Amino acid sequence: MTEDTPRTGTHEPGSEPCEAEDSIPTFPVVASGSADLPPHHDHCLGCGPANPHGHQLRVRRDAHGVHAHHRFDSRHVGAPTIAHGGAVATVLDDLFGFLLYTVGELAVTRHLAIDYLAPVLLDTPYTLRAHIHARDGRKLHLRATIENDHAHVVTTATALFLIVDIDHFLTTTHQPHHR
Ligand SMILES: CCCCCCCC(=O)SCCNC(=O)CCNC(=O)[C@H](O)C(C)(C)COP(=O)(O)OP(=O)(O)OC[C@H]1O[C@@H](n2cnc3c(N)ncnc32)[C@H](O)[C@@H]1OP(=O)(O)O
Predict the structure, then answer these.
(1) Which of ligand 1's atoms lies nearest the C-alpha of 161?
(2) 3-state percent breakdown (helix, strand, coil) of the chain, nearest 5
(3) pTM for this prediction
């Protein structure tokens, strides 16, 4: 079977398996400690160690949530010497995804909002932090910051993640939601 060959199996019609079926991450609750958390999967744009185009984010748990130390580089340039806002959003979205190691359940981004308070410079060390602000049923209200090495916050973000079950990743027939 090639990569392009539809798979057959036990799925219902209209519920075709996706290619990522074998690499859907699991999120056991991990205690605060010094080891890097496992990446979402090897090729994840945010944290996959095998994705040469990705950010290869390395994230740790702490008492409040999760944090990472990160440098954007020339692959992520927007305006000269400044990280592209979309690249910053990618990293923040992925960082939020690591909070699932504090929840122990699958969830996906429903809403992401970012305030770019000051430029995020290339080849410059930053500390990224994220925590769960509140949980309301399957709604996870999340907050994050990026700060420079003078402890100035240059970016803030909020997100709404929604808990989903594994079927979310096994189907390709999602209907768009209108708000
Ligand atoms: C595995 C983890 C890897 C992590 C990688 C980094 C994170 C990612 O990139 S995830 C990928 C990007 N995200 C996606 O692809 C998700 C696409 N969206 C979807 O599939 C669906 O919209 C999904 C599953 C999120 C939600 O669908 P559905 O369950 O129907 O939600 P819906 O009923 O509309 O909303 C649920 C609740 O949230 C509320 N809500 C929805 N949007 C908003 C919003 N923007 N603000 C406030 N509340 C909202 C609704 O009002 C509703 O509230 P209530 O239950 O009280 O009525």
Answers:
(1) 25
(2) 15, 30, 55
(3) 0.88
Q: Write down how long the chain is.
A: 179
pLDDT confidence tier of residue 130, bands split at 50, 70 and 90: very high
Rounded to whole angstroms, how far apart are CA atoms 67 and 46? 14
Nearest Cα residue to atom 32 of ligand 1: 177
CATH no. for 31-170 = 3.10.129.10
Local structure of 77: helix, strand or coil: strand
Mapped onto helix, strand or coil, the DSSP state of residue 42 is coil
Complex prediction ipTM: 0.96
Query: Which helix (H) or strand (E) segment is 103 a member of?
Result: helix 100-103
Task: Locate the domains of the chain by residue range.
Answer: 31-170
Ligand 1 pocket, CB under 6 A: 25, 40, 93-94, 97, 106, 108-111, 139, 160, 162, 164, 168, 174, 177
Candidates 100, 101, 108: which one to mutate for ligand 1, based on the most atoms within 8 Å of Cβ?
108
